[in-house]
């Protein structure tokens, strides 16, 4: 049984910010109407007291959320080289917000959307519309995201429809740290990713569309490995991103990720319908960021597992009127 609560946090930037909560016998999840931002994930085994995601200390920070902290991402995820994509023989130019790239759909993305939130069976549904020509994308995009709880599973489901041919590629940019309340960084975590290839990037972190085998490199997490790149040879592709910030081409969609804190034994397993995932190890979480209880930011304080369609495969992202975009990712927590 899921119980629901909501708490008005105040008016910020002219927006009435509300924190929604859903809790069952295993998990509690809280989020904001702004960006669908997750503010808490906690387990019943910890009396719901140990937060397993990063959370800013002040609501105002979510209105200048350069880290995309725990937010819904779209209309597209990841980087689009030169901000250009071609569908049906027509090339579209998007706004650039990450050097020569369009990142996560641009400045006016879902991260800052004021979602309408309604209760549904075992969770909430978040809806909004991205208007035609927002950041240069064609079509009015109707977005529905569901956050639901099933036992110890937190499920994020995405749906979208359009009135013009467009592209869509949504994800959740949660920063996980299973130590609980940010007691340590993620280097005491063990990670497994079922993937044989990563996507090559250039000096601007744009995708070249070339795939690189991970075997015998520091990108190989096919067997559980402690996250510590200093123990292996550092590759140029690693240095370009200042650490782990790379697209994995998944070899499976069932339990593609196992992420475990070795002290508490808290474990996160991820399964998805998506064929790729960006693993980002929080390389740019800097000291000027302030999280819950005054905890200052530091590199590698959280890890992101951004499941989505392959960012440079625009044919797979093509959505036409009358069709429905649909993807989902399940986060399973155990201890």
Question: If you had to describe this structure to a student in words, what would you say it looks like?
Answer:
The chain is built from 2 helices and 26 strands. The protein folds into 2 domains: 3-175 and 312-334, Beta-galactosidase, Chain A, domain 5 (Distorted Sandwich); 186-301, no CATH class. It is 3% helix and 43% strand. It is mostly beta strands and 335 residues long.
Radius of gyration: 19 Å
Distance between the termini: 21 Å
Individual helix count: 2
Specify the CATH architecture of the largest domain: Distorted Sandwich
Please state the overall shape, judged from the principal axes of the Cα atoms.
globular
**Main beta-sheet annotation:** 9 strands, antiparallel
Number of domains: 2
Low-confidence stretches at least 5 residues in length (pLDDT < 50)? none
Gist of the model:
The protein contains 2 helices and 26 strands. With 335 residues, the chain is an all-beta fold.
Name the features.
335 residues; mainly beta; Beta-galactosidase, Chain A, domain 5; nine-stranded antiparallel β-sheet; five-stranded antiparallel β-sheet; 3% helix; 43% strand
Question: How do the strands and helices of this protein lay out in sequence?
Answer:
Layout: E1 3-12, E2 15-23, E3 27-32, E4 38-43, E5 72-73, E6 79-81, E7 84-87, E8 90-93, E9 101-103, E10 116-120, E11 123-130, E12 141-150, E13 153-162, E14 166-167, E15 171-172, E16 189-193, E17 195-201, E18 207-213, E19 225-226, H1 236-240, E20 245-250, E21 257-261, E22 267-272, E23 276-280, E24 304-308, H2 314-317, E25 318-319, E26 325-334
Antiparallel strand pairs: 1-2, 2-3, 3-4, 5-15, 6-9, 7-8, 10-11, 11-12, 12-13, 13-26, 14-25, 16-19, 16-21, 17-18, 17-20, 20-23, 21-22, 22-26, 23-24
